[in-house]
C-alpha cells in the first residue's frame, strides 16, 4: 500500500509525534515497525495508562493518538471524552470492539478514525497520514443556502447551529458539497478517503455518514441535507455550492 509518492524523500515527509495508548506489547511493536518502514520521520511513544495519557496530551506537543478502548486503569471511551474537553488532536481508535454501537459512540464523541483489531498495520499508517495532513489539503470555505463549511477548521454551520466535525467526517462533507447536489457512491468516497474500497472501507463510509446525519437531524424538524440514493450513494439536498 503506497502512502507517499515516489517523488517524496524521507526528509520531505512530515515529522510527527504519535502516542499509542495500548497495553499490548505485540501491538505496540507492530505499529512501531509499520511506521519505521512507511514513515521513518514519525516518532512513536507508548503508554498503557489512560489517565497518564490524558495528562501527556495536555502537556506535550503531540500530533496524533492511537487509542485502545480496553485499558487497565480506565475505559477508553472515558479517555476519549476527557481529551476532547480540551484538545482537537487527531485520534484513531484501535479496538477489538466490533459492536456498531461502540463505533458510533466513538465517532459521536470525537474520534477521527476507528479500526478493528487485528488491523493491517500499513493501512493504519495510511489512515493516520490522512488525518494528520488533511488540514494542509483544503482551505476554501464552501457555502450552501443553509450550510457553511470551513474545511480547514472542520466547522460547519447548519441553519445557525455550529458543529465541529472529525477529520474523516469533514472530508466526507467536503466531497459531498463539491459534488453540488449530485450523487457520489460509498465506493467512490472510500477511494477518496483511503485509496481503497473493500467491504470494510465502504461500510465505514456508510457509518461515518450516519454520524454526520445525526448532527444535521438535531430534533428541530429540519430536513436532512445528506440523502441516501440507494445504489447511487449519497448527495446533498441543497445545491449551487460556491467557493469563497
List how many beta strands DSSP finds: 12
Order of the strands making up the biggest sheet = 2-1-3-4-5
CATH superfamily of the largest domain: Response regulator
Determine the mean pLDDT.
83
Order of helices and strands: EHEHEHEHEHEEEEHHHEEE
Strand content: 15-25%
Number of domains: 2
Q: The CATH topology of the largest domain, please?
A: Rossmann fold
Shape: globular
Distance between the termini: 35 Å
What level of helicity do the residues show? 25-40%
Residue runs with pLDDT of under 50 for 5 or more positions: 5-11
Q: Which CATH first-tier class of the largest domain would you pick? A: Alpha Beta
Which structural class should the secondary elements be placed in? alpha/beta
Individual helix count: 8
Tell me about the biggest sheet? 5 strands, parallel
Please name the CATH architecture of the largest domain: 3-Layer(aba) Sandwich
Care to give the gist of this entry?
The chain is α/β, with parallel strands linked by helices.
Task: Fill in the keyword field for this structure.
244 residues; alpha/beta; Rossmann fold; Arc Repressor Mutant, subunit A; 2 domains; five-stranded parallel sheet; five-stranded antiparallel sheet; 12 strands; globular
Amino acid at each position: 500500500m503506497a502512502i507517499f509518492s515516489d517523488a517524496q524523500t524521507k526528509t520531505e515527509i512530515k515529522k510527527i509525534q504519535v502516542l499509542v495508548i495500548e497495553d499490548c506489547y505485540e501491538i505496540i511493536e507492530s505499529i512501531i515497525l509499520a511506521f519505521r518502514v512507511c514513515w521513518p520521520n514519525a516518532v512513536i511513544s507508548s503508554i498503557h495508562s489512560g489517565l497518564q495519557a490524558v495528562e501527556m496530551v495536555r502537556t506535550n506537543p503531540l500530533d496524533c493518538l492511537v487509542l485502545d478502548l480496553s485499558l487497565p486503569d480506565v475505559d477508553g471511551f472515558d479517555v476519549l471524552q476527557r481529551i476532547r474537553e480540551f484538545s482537537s488532536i487527531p485520534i484513531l481508535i484501535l479496538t477489538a470492539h466490533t459492536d456498531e454501537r461502540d463505533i458510533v459512540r466513538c465517532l459521536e464523541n470525537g474520534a477521527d478514525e476507528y479500526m478493528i483489531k487485528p488491523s493491517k498495520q500499513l493501512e493504519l499508517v495510511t489512515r493516520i497520514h490522512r488525518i494528520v495532513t488533511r488540514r494542509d489539503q483544503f482551505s476554501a470555505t464552501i457555502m450552501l443556502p443553509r450550510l457553511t463549511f470551513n474545511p480547514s477548521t472542520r466547522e460547519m454551520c447548519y441553519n445557525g447551529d455550529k458543529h465541529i466535525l472529525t477529520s474523516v467526517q469533514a472530508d466526507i462533507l467536503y466531497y459531498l458539497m463539491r459534488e453540488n447536489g449530485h450523487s457520489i457512491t460509498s465506493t467512490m468516497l472510500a477511494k477518496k478517503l483511503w485509496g481503497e474500497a473493500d467491504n470494510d472501507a465502504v461500510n465505514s463510509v456508510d457509518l461515518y455518514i450516519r454520524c454526520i446525519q445525526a448532527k444535521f437531524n438535531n430534533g428541530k424538524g429540519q430536513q436532512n441535507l445528506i440523502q441516501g440514493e440507494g445504489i447511487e450513494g449519497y448527495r446533498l439536498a441543497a445545491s449551487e455550492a460556491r467557493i469563497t
